Amino acid sequence: MIAITHFTVGAGEGDDGFVARAQPALDALSRCAGYQRGSLGRSTDDPGAWVLLTEWTNVGSYRRALGNYQVKLHATPLLAQARDLPGGFETIVDVAPGGETVVHASDREPLA
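Predicted structure:
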């Protein structure tokens, strides 16, 4: 499961201030069961656009992580400032370096 959270950082906060708030949030998430990896990134086209990307074993582990005390303490204030966009995605195809491809079945019910 992939969680992508979008942020708009104003000039008043600056990059260092946002990174200083995002790092403890990402660290708290990283300590939760089911966490696989995470990154904080800034747009190459718009310096005010940022994303927090995390990957999880499944949607349940991500949702349980959001209830973790340390996540509530360090990540929830940051996540509360996220843009209102879809953020949770199921992984359908993985391609490793060199081209090894794994196709995953969807957890969603088939559309009629």
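Summary: The mean pLDDT is 91.
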